[in-house]
Amino acid sequence: MAAQSTNSSYSYMCECRLTHNYFVHSVGMHFEYRGDDNAFAQRYASALGARVTLEAVLVELRKQREERLQAADASLQRVLRIEKEYTRLHPEVYSLQPEAFLHEGFREIVETLKSKGSPAIRIMELKSKGRLQELRPGLWSFPVLSDKFCALLEAELAHFRASGLPFTAPNSMNRHGLILAELGFYEGLLDPLVYQYVDVIAGRLLSAHTDGLDSYRGFTVLYDAAADGDRDLALHYDNAEVTLNINIGGEWEGGQVAFYGLATEDELPVVEVALQRGHGVLHAGLDMHKALPITSGTRHNLILWCRSSCIRNDLCPMCFKQPRLVPTNRYHHEGFTMSMQDCPPPAASINDDDLYD
């Protein structure tokens, strides 16, 4: 099992979290923005065309940037309030019960891949039995969660939403999801799921993209065909070495996830994936993908962005540069590590100007 960097005394993010990948829904584009309106206008004004005014985009970017600058502290305040005020509907759902919560096929996959012998032969055995489906090289689908667990998790998340307690979207593209670390799902539930199970599978099926998973970001995405819902998801890649995307519920039409190949390589033929409840798709974080529009109903997914510090310490997967580390708290930890003797002061002592000197 990989070391779990989220338990360390220091947590880090790359400074590009404050400057890159701003998504503006009105134009369906990602932008780089450093708080300099004139520089942004010079770079992007012609690309915006007549679809939306420059000032409207800047208003959204200023809002998002301020939220990012305050995000770590705001997250911690939400956690403290949720711990104090929220009464859990199903307390048992916060601790992993493998036989009850994990699909028997998923448990078989992990046990088979852990066994001695050639990994290639073990993978062929699982494919021949229908446990593993290789959609194309580097893209895998398999059962993960039981129907019982999906129902319990959906009920718990609905109960939290109805509580009126504050929450925030996982990122600018997913407006109606929940960040599961803030609700207390990590230690008892997601930590063992990632470090004892997903790490084994990722190490065998996507070995080129991980040298041991040692942190992750777990959140939900809710697609809704209603007028104010998130119906689709623009083309993107993930801030992760390996992603596991699991459907946990809903009834819908449309909404397949389309995969295009690694952002760093030539585009591959498009593969569209539709998941039934409890089933997941495993792919490299750099695999470009988008969610096609759902045409009716709702779809609810659990996303695990799984990270390997031995990979990402050399190159940030979001800005494709040597990561420039900024201290943060564990709720905004991005999986980077550094030697303790070189640790900078805590995040609270760093001001905005320090990030761009």
Notes on the protein architecture:
- Helices cover 31% and strands 23% of the residues.
- With 357 residues, the protein is of the alpha+beta class.
- It has a single domain, classed as q2cbj1_9rhob like domain (Jelly Rolls, Sandwich), CATH 2.60.120.
- Strands 4, 5, 6, 8, 9, 12 and 14 form a 7-stranded antiparallel beta sheet that branches. It has a 4-stranded antiparallel beta sheet with strand order 7-13-10-11, with no helix packed on it.
- Strand 10 (257-262) and strand 11 (271-273) form a beta hairpin.
- Helix 4 (104-114) crosses helix 7 (186-205).
- The protein starts with 10 loop residues before the first strand and ends in a 29-residue tail after the last strand.
- Residues 1-8 and 339-357 have low confidence and may be disordered.
The total number of structural domains is 1
Shape: globular
N-to-C CA distance: 39 Å
Q: Can you tell me the CATH superfamily?
A: q2cbj1_9rhob like domain
CATH topology-level fold name:
Jelly Rolls
Number of helices: 8
Binned strand content: 15-25%
Instruction: Tell me how many strands there are.
Output: 15
Order of helices and strands: EEEHHHHHEEHHEEEEEEEEEHE
Q: What is the overall pLDDT average?
A: 90
What percent of residues adopt helix (DSSP H or I)? 25-40%
Largest sheet: 7 strands, antiparallel
* Name of the level-1 CATH class: Mainly Beta
Uncertain segments: 1-8, 339-357
* Structure class: alpha+beta
Radius of gyration: 20 Å
User: Which second-level CATH architecture applies?
Assistant: Sandwich
Properties at a glance:
single chain; 357 residues; alpha+beta; Jelly Rolls; four-stranded antiparallel sheet; 15 strands; 23% strand; disordered N terminus
